[in-house]
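To the wet lab folks,

You asked to see what we're planning to order before we commit. Fair enough. Below is the target structure as tokens, and below that is the sequence we designed to fit it. If anything looks off to you, flag it before the synthesis order goes out.
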């Protein structure tokens, strides 16, 4: 059989009885050797991957609906649907299916196989009497009819025959006539039988029957039958709810009668499915798949009809942005929200056209207005609409806000309005803020900018965001960690960076959300966020929150620092060392005491990462400044491991220095005149002693100094330039507590630091080195670290 390709959409029915879009591709019918039969294959139009491979089995019932749909069920209650772009393609594939199954393509459904006993039974029936024989539609026969309908549900072929019988004889309307009679006579037994009959007819799962049952003149009687469940003592009052309680609101009058009828029908059928019918058991799930499809395609039709009515939508948006329509604005916003929700049923190309229509009508400027209103319901609906737009096309929203910036002030930019809504969320659980934070993350995610045809979108938008929006996002964080808000009762000698921490739970939650977004920026924005952190000294402000009584907030602050260190960027490392930013983390660890909790584990993991990744500059800084406070922690080997790494690096540098000293001398025989054997031993001891004295400052100096000495040794003046004593001894490094951290972070100039690696010892240095040792031994003013 030759391949026939047609553009289709593949859908599967999920556990919530909703159709999930599996992708767009081209369908073909071909023989698959592995499956041993003709199969339907759908390959994705984007990358050619296989979306569907389904063997056309003679035992499978296929249904053709609305000229462009083919629906069927496979094993394990797995429902599939192909939605064709063109009717011709649907007809061609349908003919292939019917050809394989030996069926007439004029039918809209193929028949399932039946067991041998049934087959033998039906072979005895003449061809002219292929329908199930229905009892006369009379009150006295209701029990017999109910038993018949219930009995056929287990057999696909008998369900099909019963459905044909019900349609051919106008039987449904006769049954509903009996319902009105039973209700007038208060015949409770008859009403219970009618409940079983109508429920069974719905479970026949036939679109043609649904068209009859859900028509305007039948649907309320169908609902009435379903009120009389035999399991209930008193019948439900579903009709009363649908006719009196549920009110159809027209924010703008709908003049199209067909559209009005379709909206009413969809609402009522949805009510039947969600409210009236019991949740189907595992064995009944497939019985209502066509009902779900019926609702689904009704919604598609409603959206299409509304979208085609340009005057209607234009009027909706005109009133939405009109200041004089305050009383109706809530209804207008709710209408647009429901309209967007219905649009999720559209196929991608149609959904694309739908959102472009909304964009052209001014949906984003309208949202900007309604988001700033005091009505909580209006704001909540506006946020839902905004989420539909962002999820569909983040690029469309980004393009709008960048164009908007050229015309309006920063405060009224759409993204800033969204950020302010997040910050000012009055919900104690911050439900709206969480939703908005997710939308902001989508907008600033570079991953969904890469596929854009506009190659500069990423650079332009991130530059725009950090220039015009980031200060609004971080304002609550900076305000709650400000240095000028230190409490008056805080002792001056306190070692906390800043005692100001939000005790309010809602504020703490908000700051946690902001930190989550900033952590995302650290991972994905590199240059922009790095510049912002440095300019605002943001990490220091964030680490103030390590003092918070809310552990989740302290963990968020720690996570922010962990992401920064995880980048292994020396630029960040120098910033951390220069600012002594490990101090609040170590204070938090010490304050936590011996409690084995999440905070303890997270802080330990941070130092474990530094040890495993061997980040030398941070290891040196931690061991030099904090090891005395940490050496007592023995329940993990992390801190002893850091010390071990430190000692290993120290030994390695020492060996390099000694090797360099020997190699440098061997370069020039004349240089031996400077030394004798005794001098060599003394010089070696001097180098070792000075290295031990100077190393606590940072062994990075030795690396740089060694490079400088090597350059000097290989220069035009020969190796003597590294060994000739200078006019005056080089001053020793300043190891005072106030500047020990800063000297690590400052750039080191090899030429200047060469004197630190002198190969001769000077008498003056001994006194200065002893002073250095005394300074180093003096404890820093950090009670919490020494305790």
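Sequence we intend to order:
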């Amino acid at each position: 059989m030759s391949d026939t390709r047609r553009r289709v959409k593949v859908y599967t029915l999920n556990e919530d009885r909703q159709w999930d879009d599996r992708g767009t591709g081209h369908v073909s019918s071909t023989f698959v050797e592995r499956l041993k039969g003709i199969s339907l294959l759908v390959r994705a139009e984007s990358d050619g991957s296989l979306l569907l491979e389904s063997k056309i089995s003679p035992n499978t019932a296929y249904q053709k609906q609305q000229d462009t749909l083919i629906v069927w069920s496979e094993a394990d209650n797995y429902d599939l649907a192909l939605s064709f772009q063109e009717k011709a393609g649907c007809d061609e594939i349908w003919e292939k299916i019917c050809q394989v199954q030996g069926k007439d393509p004029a039918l809209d459904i193929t028949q399932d196989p039946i067991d041998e006993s049934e087959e033998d039974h039906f072979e005895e029936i003449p061809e002219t009497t292929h329908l199930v024989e229905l009892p006369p539609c009379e009150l006295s026969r209701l029990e017999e009819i109910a038993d018949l309908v219930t009995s056929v549900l287990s057999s696909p072929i008998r369900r099909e025959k019963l459905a044909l019988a019900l349609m051919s004889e106008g039987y449904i309307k006769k049954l509903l006539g009996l319902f009105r009679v039973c209700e007038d006579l208060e015949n409770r037994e008859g009403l219970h039988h009618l409940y079983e009959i109508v429920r069974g007819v719905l479970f026949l799962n036939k679109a043609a029957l649904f068209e009859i049952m859900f028509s305007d003149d039948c649907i309320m009687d169908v609902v009435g039958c379903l009120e009389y469940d035999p399991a209930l003592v008193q019948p439900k009052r579903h009709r009363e709810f649908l006719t009196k309680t549920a009110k159809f609101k027209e924010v703008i009058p709908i003049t199209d009668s067909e559209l009005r009828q379709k909206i009413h029908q969809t609402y009522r059928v949805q009510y039947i499915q969600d409210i009236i019918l019991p949740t189907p058991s595992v064995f009944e799930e497939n019985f209502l798949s066509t009902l779900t499809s019926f609702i689904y395609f009704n919604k598609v039709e409603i959206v299409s009809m509304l979208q085609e009515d340009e005057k209607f939508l234009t009027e909706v948006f005109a009133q939405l942005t009109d200041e004089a329509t305050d009383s109706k604005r809530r209804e207008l916003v709710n209408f647009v929200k429901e309209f967007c929700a219905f649009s999720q049923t559209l196929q991608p190309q149609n959904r694309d056209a739908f959102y472009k229509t909304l964009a052209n009508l001014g949906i984003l400027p309208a949202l900007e207005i309604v988001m700033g209103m005091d009505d909580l319901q209006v704001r909540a609906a506006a946020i839902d609409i905004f989420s539909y737009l962002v999820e569909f096309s983040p690029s469309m929203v980004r393009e709008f806000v960048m164009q908007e910036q050229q015309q309006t002030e920063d405060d009224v930019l759409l993204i800033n309005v969204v950020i302010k809504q997040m910050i000012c969320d009055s919900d104690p659980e911050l439900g709206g803020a969480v939703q908005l934070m997710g939308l902001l993350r989508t907008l600033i995610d570079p991953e969904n900018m890469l596929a854009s045809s506009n190659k500069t979108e990423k650079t332009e938008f991130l530059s725009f965001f950090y220039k015009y929006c980031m200060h609004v996002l971080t304002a609550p964080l900076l305000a709650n960690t400000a240095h000028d808000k230190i409490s008056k009762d805080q002792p001056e000698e306190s070692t906390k960076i800043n005692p100001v921490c939000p005790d309010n739970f809602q504020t703490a939650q908000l700051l946690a959300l902001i930190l989550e977004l900033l952590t995302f920026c650290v991972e994905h924005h590199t240059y922009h966020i790095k510049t912002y952190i440095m300019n605002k000294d943001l990490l220091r402000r964030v680490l103030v929150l390590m003092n918070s009584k809310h552990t989740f907030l302290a963990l968020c602050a720690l996570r922010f620092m962990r992401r920064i260190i995880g980048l292994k960027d020396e630029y960040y490392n120098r910033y951390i060392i220069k600012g002594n930013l490990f101090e609040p983390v170590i204070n938090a660890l010490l304050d936590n005491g011996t409690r084995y909790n999440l905070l303890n584990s997270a802080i330990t993991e941070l130092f474990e990462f530094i040890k495993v990744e061997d980040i030398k500059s941070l290891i040196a800084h931690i061991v030099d400044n904090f090891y005395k406070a940490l050496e007592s922690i023995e329940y993990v080997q992390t801190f002893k491991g850091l010390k071990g790494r430190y000692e290993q690096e120290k030994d390695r540098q020492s060996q390099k220095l000694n090797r360099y000293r020997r190699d440098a001398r061997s370069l020039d025989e004349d240089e031996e005149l400077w030394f004798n054997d005794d001098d060599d031993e003394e010089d070696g001891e001097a180098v070792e002693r000075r290295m031990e004295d100077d190393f606590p400052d940072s062994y990075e100096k030795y690396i740089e100094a060694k490079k400088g000495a090597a350059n000097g040794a290989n220069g035009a003046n020969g190796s003597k330039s590294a060994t000739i004593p200078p006019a005056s001894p080089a001053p020793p490094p300043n190891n005072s507590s106030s500047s020990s951290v800063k000297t690590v972070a400052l750039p080191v100039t090899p030429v200047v630091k060469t004197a630190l690696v002198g190969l001769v010892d000077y008498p003056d240095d001994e006194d200065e080195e002893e002073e250095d040792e005394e300074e180093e031994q003096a404890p820093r003013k950090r009670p919490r670290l020494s305790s």
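Structural context that might help your review: Strands lie at 6-13, 19-32, 37-44, 50-55, 62-65, 69-74, 78-84. The chain is about 60% helix and 5% strand.

Thanks,
Computational group
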